[in-house]
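A quick aside before the break. I want you to see a complete sequence-to-structure record at least once, exactly as it would be stored in a machine-readable document. Don't worry about memorizing anything.
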Amino acid sequence: MTAAEETVDRRADEAWRAAIEHAAGCPACQTPGGGCKTGEQLLRAYEEATRQARADGEP
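That is the input. The structure line, written in tokens, reads:
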């Protein structure tokens, strides 16, 4: 794994951790059908970081 790949993977890991930590303390995120703008933004950031990691890892 190259340094660039490690950086992208680390970003995905950090984005996931931020989303999970937020959801753990957010009543709106824990409520089925509830909505939280911050939680949604964090989840989108994780999804984008994951897409980037996958795209960078393809031959």
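Two observations worth writing down. The radius of gyration is 13 Å. Helices lie at 3-25, 27-30, 37-57. We'll return to this after the break.
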